[in-house]
## 1
Amino acid sequence: MRFRLIPVFALMSAALAAVPAQAQDKGSVNPKPLPPLANPSDPNIAAKELFGRKLAPAALAPQAIGFYAKGCVAGAVALPINGSAWQVMRLSRNRNWGHPDLIALLERVAIKVQKTAGWPGLLVGDMSQPRGGPMFTGHASHQIGLDADIWLTPMPNRQLSREEREETSAVMMVRKDRLDIDPSTWTPTHLPVIRAAAQEPQVERIFVNAAIKKALCREAKGDRSWLSKVRPMYGHDYHFHIRMKCPPGSANCEAQTPPADGEGCSTGDLAYWFSDAVLHPKPPPVPPKPKPPLTLANLPSECRQVLQAPDAK
Ligand SMILES: [Zn+2]
């Protein structure tokens, strides 16, 4: 799996949000299983090594535990890989898991998209691992079963094969100079898709590339209140990211400060994202020390029970 070079400030903000996730990265129909760990109880072992080896959810009541970028999920359920209005991509990653409220939300949004955008449905990318937690590749968040990446490519009007789900690439929506959307790929149907998600009361934030935010600000007619939830973020130029609020009944879920009220559409609001420092970041003179990976001790203590619980049937 390839990592993109990420500027330092992006790494710093990664604790709060998502690093670029790579919908365009291909998977394999026959992924190799991970070898067993020599000493799984070693306290210094990276939590991603433990959570990355769990192939089934914990047989516990549904709970989102901790923060989006530091936590886990109990009692997760899978989004069915074929729905009436969606299909799951990159099945080899086994990341189509989430809190049951996220599954219900995605199904609802997908059906709404058929009606309002005329898309046959949604292509769903990464959600969480069966027990959440940190991942080997791609995301800082997506740890508590409340985040989902949705492709900005409409679902085709037929069932995709296993191979296609691994090999098909998402489509780039941002122009080469990064200052606006690419008019050859961005269509009038993209706004109603993103709006369908943003208007859901349980949605906390939507992450899109700043060029996409700029286009939404320009194109939104009528009710524009949903724009405040749509936040510019690094990456997110092939897909957008839905983040749900902490669901009722998840006492140990740590809420994120709600986004500011305004639409976030003024030149000033977007200036940072179109600044030279963000568009053309210079490598730091001294490469930063890589952050040590999260260990189990860095996560909420309940995540230990989530790891130890038997597999849900
Ligand atoms: Zn994302």
## 2
Amino acid sequence: MDERRLDGNATAGVLAEIFTFEMTTARTACVHCGATGEVGAQMAYVSEIGTVVRCASCNNALIRVARQDDGGRYWLDLRGVKYLQLEEHL
Ligand SMILES: [Zn+2]
């Protein structure tokens, strides 16, 4: 499987399909180590089966996103984050 390791800003497109907020600037806290930071500052692993955002401090899987090929259905696993703090940009 071809997987590319990028910074968290690589998740902007797929997360924008689900959330209406700019998600790469959302602050997150890691369930495993407690580190906080923007989604865009974490590590993103992108492959044809989905995207995994991993904590830049401890490598815990924060966010997993998979999209069904025939469209319209997403799986979103947020169990690696304590919270996502979103800010509305007006
Ligand atoms: Zn962590």
## 3
Amino acid sequence: MVIENKFEIGQEVYVIRKERVKEKCSACNGAGHKIIDGNEYYCSKCNGKGYSRYETKEEYQVKGLKTVTLIKSITQLQEKELIPQTVIIYNVDSEGMTLKEVPEHHLFTTKEEAEACCKELNEEESANGNR
Ligand SMILES: [Zn+2]
């Protein structure tokens, strides 16, 4: 079977990954403390950390230039129809770190494309109310 891969081994690509991001504490705006009438008060909402663990969310982010090290095709069952479908996944390497089994639609040749896709996916998620 011929694998129709969009990217080649050794090619440099931009990868998007879903990762937890910390949101600034809304009570102290990320400072960890509040100043009221010239006095500094420790922020109790975030315990002085500047971010609240209750406000972390998952977001797609662009991970710089990575090098494709492995191309693999796997057959997956589609969740709804239960039809086997062949998908192409990639391992990409950056500074000794390997991101494994990245689907083809999460790889891009330009940063602009990767950023646009991240934005779209993140907007979709917030529209669905998934936080
Ligand atoms: Zn705070």
